[in-house]
Amino acid sequence: MRVFFPVIFSMISILLLSVIEILLLKTLHRDWWQIPWVRKTSWGVPVAGLFGLSLWALGIVLEFDPMLAIGATLSAIVFVLGIALMLSLPFSAVFHIIDRIVKWIGQKRNERRDMDAQPDPGRRRLLTTSAMIFPAVAVVTGGRGVLNAYGDPRMPDISLSWPDLPHALEGLRVLHISDVHIGFFIGFDELERMIELSAEKQPDLVLITGDFSDDAPTYLDALRLAGQIPSRYGHFASIGNHEYFRGIQSIIRSYERGPIPLLLDSGATVNIDGAALHIAGADDPRSMRNMPEHFFERSIDQAMRDAPSDAFPILLSHRPSGFDYAARRGIPLTLAGHTHGGQIGFNGRSLLYTLNPERYMWGLYEKGDAKLFVSAGAGHWFPYRIGCPAEIPTYILRNSPTGT
User: Fold this and answer.
1) In the chain, pLDDT over 70 holds for what percent of residues?
2) Among 9, 110, 290, 389, fewest CB within 10 Å belongs to which?
3) DSSP count for the chain of H helices, then E strands
4) Is residue 57 part of a domain?
């Protein structure tokens, strides 16, 4: 039943958004509702959504990926358009209200003057045209966001510096893959493209921070593909909440049979030209609402228990929340994902960060010499991105006397 949850959730959402959209048009945009093509489009959007949902569900039943992908994508487009119209129609209604007020004032003036002149048609045309701008921009932006989600992830190089970085780690290239979410919207073709782009970065180390795949039966095949990225010092992975959603025991067995070690409350020390690099993998609490007290403290302590005293540690924590304790513990670098950056950003920051600066949403954060980088994710479980592209960053470790 869990595999059908996104379909059921999308169906409820699309029907609810369609009802809201029609009510907004009938109550706030009565002039538009009188136009036949507007009414037909309003009824056509939920019909298209239900058609997409039917293809999606049938694709799951028949295990036919092309049908599943087309249905899921069409459903996502209808959902995004529904959100766009729900948010924009109340704003465009303001211009309709102003238009009615202008018309009423004009009529009152004419009554006092005993005239039959009509209100300035140019002014009314300007108001009605302005009203169309909001839904038009919202729909275009929504469509662009869906298209952006299907592009290649960006592959930025990010230099990170510490004053006490071991000399042997100078210039080490660490590739960070997070939140691929192989499943409805990201398939093996997209994964192969990510691997091709990653190989071009010539990483020394490949680290994965959870939510790698939403398809448990093909998880092992996906790991084998990811293991093909050339890397001097290997590949390591930590767990995410979606691994728990898909059946943690099945996922663990895939890691045991695959080429990439899973670090779950455990760590691995890599010798790099005589310098010890300890990679620690934290567990995931599955839910933040009922997270056990001191969850990250216990998990990180276990992952660090075998770390050599002179090692340079890197923590893999799917949830950025693990950074608070990692910084107190003196771990210089934490890599995280989970948030997808909210998939909406502005000026290099998640839009949600502007609403709540206390949350770690996307990008680099620092506490003293401790650094956290939250990846926006290589994939998504819902295809929409504006100003926050999918990414697979490569961190270049540097030694700096200032720690900048």
Assistant:
1) 86
2) 290
3) 12, 13
4) yes
- Of 99, 119, 149, the one marking the end of a domain is 149
From CA 57, how far away is CA 63, in angstroms rounded? 10
Task: Let me know if residue 404 belongs to a domain.
Answer: no
Q: Please write the tens of the pLDDT for every residue from 275-308.
A: 999 999 999 998 766 677 799 999 999 999 999 9
Cross-strand partners of 71: none
In whole angstroms, what is the distance from residue 14 CA to residue 264 CA?
38
- Contact by Cβ (8 Å): 226, 177: yes
Yes or no: say if 239 and 317 are a contact pair by the CB < 8 Å rule.
no
The total domain count for the chain is 2
| Number of other residues whose CB lies within 10 A of the CB of residue 127 | 19
Claim to verify: residue 144 and residue 161 sit in the same structural domain: no
Whether the per-residue pLDDT at 187 is higher than 80: the answer is: yes
Asked whether residue 180 falls in the same domain as residue 283, the answer is yes
DSSP 121-142: HHHHHHHHHHHHHHHHHHHHHH
Same domain for 103 and 191, yes or no, is no
